[in-house]
Amino acid sequence: MKAFVPALILATTAAFCAPARAGDAAELNILGFSADGRIFAFEEFGIQDGSGFPYSHRFYIDTGSDEFVSGSPIRVRIDDEAANLELARQQARERGDAIVPSATLAANRGFTAGARPATQISGDALHMAVNPRPVFPPIDATLELRLEEFSLQGPDYCGDFGPTKGFRLTRLGVQPGEQATLLHEDSTLPASRGCALGYSIGAVQTFFPQGGAPVYAVMISVRSAGFEGPDHRWIGIPAQF
Q1: If you count Cβ atoms within 10 Å of the first and of the last residue's Cβ in the chain, which end, N or C, has fewer?
Q2: What is the pLDDT of residues 166-216, one digit of tens each?
Q3: pTM, whole model, 2 decimals?
Q4: Concatenated DSSP letters for 51-100?
Q5: Which stretch is the leader sequence (predicted)?
Q6: Average model confidence (pLDDT) for the chain?
Q7: Helix (H, G, I), strand (E, B) or coil at 102
Q8: Using CB atoms within 10 A of its CB, is residue 67 exposed (0-12), middle (13-18) or buried (19+)?
Q9: Distance from CA of residue 196 to its chain's centroid?
Q10: DSSP annotation of 32
Q11: Distance between CA atoms of 136 and 133, rounded to whole angstroms?
Q12: 73 preceded by a cis bond (ω within 30 of 0)
């Protein structure tokens, strides 16, 4: 027994001291909307797994067409492990200011009506229902969303990681018997998603511009194969009420 205890302590210590290997989960920063609600913007940022390089990606999306506006997306990565993450974010912010100034986005950020971080393991990751704004009793119809995953062919090398998937996002009908509204459905797997293995609804951001049509954006967390483990990135799907 005396010989066993030190060996157990050494094994336990080694396990805790071993370097962790894991993919990276990009942090989500919802930037906001243009004053008229026609553009929605968000940032994802973090330290890339494997390389240790800091990165910041900014996306500016037309809320009417669900397409990137000119100059977007902005992708900054500093290929230096010693580089500061804030430097990458600053460079991306400066480029993004040419599309919509950061001060404008901050002044029109809207309201985070629902949020589910990638770390949450309880509840239904494919369904979210929210009151669009903090008014009680509610004066708006419930915004209820359903995400569906389905098999979709990815690059050949993805076969080593598991079946790749696309997604379909719908807004459920407000009244009984009302048809659901299709917000997005993949027909092909974009190369930017790599080996996409799964999805979840991460947040709902709403905005009621003064004198304009209200809009919202659904943030979808994408789980994909990374260098050291699963990576998490973000997709924004905007729509009008």
Answers
A1: N
A2: 999 999 998 888 999 999 999 999 999 999 999 999 999 999 999 889 999
A3: 0.89
A4: T--EEEEEEEEETTTTEEPTT--EEEE---TTS-HHHHHHHHHHHHTTTS
A5: 1-22
A6: 91
A7: helix
A8: exposed
A9: 13
A10: E
A11: 9
A12: yes
The span from the CA of 90 to the CA of 77, in Å, is 11
Please count the other Cβ atoms lying within 10 Å of the Cβ belonging to residue 72: 20
Angle at 186 between CA 122 and CA 63, to 5 degrees: 85
Residue predicted with more confidence, 142 or 6: 142
* Cα–Cα distance for residue pair 14/173, rounded to 1 Å: 55
Q: How far apart are CA 197 and CA 44, in angstroms?
A: 19
Distance CA 65, CA 61 (A): 8
Q: What is the 3-state secondary structure (H, E, C) of 106-163?
A: HHCCCEEEEECCCCCCCCCCCEEEECCCCCCCCCCCCEEEEEEEEECCCCHHHHHCCC
Would you give the DSSP letter of residue 184? E
Listed residue (79, 99, 100) closest to 88, CA to CA: 79
